Amino acid sequence: MSNTTENNAAPQRHMLLVAKSAFAAAPYRQMQQLADLVAALPGVAGASFGFTEQGTPSLREALGSLRAAGASDVLILPLMLPIEPSFTAWLTKSLRRWQAEDGVAWPQVRIAQGLADSPLLAALMAGLVEGAQAAAPVPPAERLVPEGSLVPAQKRRVLVCQGGPCNAAGADLIWGHLRNHQDRQKLRTTGDGTMSCKSTCLGPCNLAPVIQVYPEGTYYGGVTEAAIDRIVAEHLLGGRVVEAFAYEPTGRKQTLRAVAPAESAKT
Predict the structure, then answer these.
(1) What is 156-265's CATH number?
(2) Are 114 and 78 in contact (CB under 8 A)?
(3) Which of 119, 125, 208, 257 is the most buried (most CB within 10 A)?
(4) Is the pLDDT of residue 61 over 80?
(5) DSSP 8-state code for residue 208
(6) What are the tens digits of pLDDT across the range 187-197?
């Protein structure tokens, strides 16, 4: 099922609404409602949505669908609040990398200002405050009953660095790609079982974006979506370290190695 709403009366520009993540049906419905609203605006040919972190379609998948459909002008509308100062920088860098990796002509892509920069935000907030006056009060807390927890049986852990240099290199996109793999391939219950989490700085900042895979403790640097594909298939499911992206603790400073396209996509 497509998440795109078309407005054939004014084929001028396609809007791509971007949020961080969605896990349940309700957020997807909300995004579709927003896309429908935007698609009805004058001068808009169509509107769709994508996610920078976990959710389907990912931002890259959404852009790929627009490219395949022949879109020539795409305006990305970030819906997140707040937006980190590095957002536009790492998104621009990732867009350039994706274009280079695809090796085909892309539509013109632009990034709109965030919601916080809109002069209409004050009126929107005023409307939300006015509508909230009739909200039901939160009932008093009842006595809490302790709940038990299962200790995870998964043997593998993937840490995705969220330090400054990794964020600037697009770590959120890498996290989202990994989490979508985890959901689609049921990695928690496949093979040895895998759990993943975001981490503070993992150390080798100049190798960003960085992830670390346990129980081996393997560091992977310069991680791309293609690298995640291989790490999932070969390391998490196959038990073999992907040497093309792996970096051993040598006691000396290391720089990113160039990875040939064929080696990057090797399976």
Answers:
(1) 3.40.30.10
(2) yes
(3) 208
(4) yes
(5) -
(6) 999 999 999 99
Q: Is the CA virtual torsion 178, 183, 188, 189 positive or negative?
A: negative
Which option is the CATH number for 9-116: 3.30.465.10, 3.40.50.1980, 3.40.50.1400, 3.40.640.10?
Answer: 3.40.50.1400
- The ranges of the chain annotated as CATH 3.40.30.10 are 156-265
Take residue 32 and report the two structure tokens written for it: 């579709």
**Tokens 């990305």, residue located:** 76
**Pairing outcome for strands 5-6 and 46-51:** antiparallel
CA–CA separation, 175 vs 196, rounded Å? 9
226, 176 in Cβ contact below 8 A? no
Question: What Rg value do the Cα atoms of the chain yield, rounded?
Answer: 21
Tell me how many degrees the CA angle 157-163-167 measures, rounded to the nearest 5.
100
